Amino acid sequence: MRRRWVLLAGGTALLGAPVAGTALVADRTEAAPVPRLLSGPDWYTPDPAAEAAWLAGGTVPGDGGPHGDMVRRALLDLRALSRANGAVSAGPAPSWNHAWPRDSAFAAVALARTGHLDDAVRVLRFLASVMLPDGGFEARYLLDGSGPPDDRRRQDDGAGWALWALRAVLDGPGGHARAEELRDLLEGTLGFTLERTGSGRRLPVPSPDYWERREASLTLGAVAPLLAGLDAAAAVLSRLRERTRAREVSAAAGRLAELVHDRFGPAGYPRYAQNPDAGVDAATAFLLPPFTARARPAVLAAFDAYQERARRPAGGLAPGAGWRRDGVSWTPQTALAAWVSAQVGRDGEAHARLDWLNVHRTGWGSIPEKVLADGSPAGPAPLGWSAACAVLAVDTLERG
User: Fold this and answer.
1) Whole-prediction pTM value?
2) Is the peptide bond between 319 and the residue preceding it cis, with omega within 30 degrees of 0?
3) What is the mean pLDDT of the chain?
4) What is the C-alpha separation between 7 and 380, in angstroms, rounded?
5) In whole angstroms, what is the distance from residue 61 CA to residue 111 CA?
6) Which residues lie closer than 8 Å to 304 by C-beta, 6 or more apart?
7) Range list of H helices, 241-296
8) Neighbours of 243 (CB within 10 A)
9) What CA–CA distance (Å, rounded) separates 23 from 263?
């Protein structure tokens, strides 16, 4: 999230279509201005017939309800952000026009849950194609799969997210039959996760997480996805009838869970176990369903504390209680909170978050990355991670 902001002037080509905007460049620091929308309604050229046919090949959660139009637009945005090789752009603006393993994993899960299995598998195959030799990932990739766009530090949570998404895709209708073509992704990311955690016997070394900045201390946002990945891998191996390996990986997940809860739990699951004063952040959600099998009361309490302390003037959430006080709401974390609330049976909270996202969409219907204190959308729109979480939240509510 610590990126350079660029608002484009004129008709710069992006994802095959011009982007509207006015020239403005600003670094995101405490005193810097917050740019408004970095994209416009013509960020891509739609093909209504092709879009209708694609939607008809799956489902639109909430169709006919208060969030149906938002979900339909979010699904079409995920489709438009996707390339034929499975790369999913984070959003239509230069610094976002790359594929993050984290964002891609959520997109794959949303596509699988709505019946677009081929699209979901294509996303995971792209991740397998750019996976590093040790099974980990760079922070982000060029959309042609040729490598990272810069020397940004790699982010170890990507392996956990890939494993978590792999399970969700294979668990969907028709997914099990696609397991072997994703074997490389399973083996590579599982090997990386086991190595990084000593088969669950140690916490990993510090790594950047979804805050997109260098870290000297381990964050909950870096380790929780690896734990979710080990749980997911054990389930996948069990489905593949590799029961001995499944038991071994499940035991590793159990050991790592004990370490995580022992280290982060006593202080209320803060972002840094070594610095509880830094406060809680959205990573508390990563220790709750759908990322874990059950909701521990202490983690739910931390999730509640995060939502209270990270609330912003416009009504959305910041990435964490310790995030800069600039009044900006972030839709990825707000949509994530909606999904987790739906997963743990807090339907009222989920509906309230979804209502907020729905009201703060852009004029053309996409969910923006940010909402300013005055309620206006900002950043690129759409943002793939936000779109995926909104789809999944509505889908969860609909399934009951």
Assistant:
1) 0.92
2) no
3) 92
4) 9
5) 11
6) none
7) 243-264
8) 10
9) 46
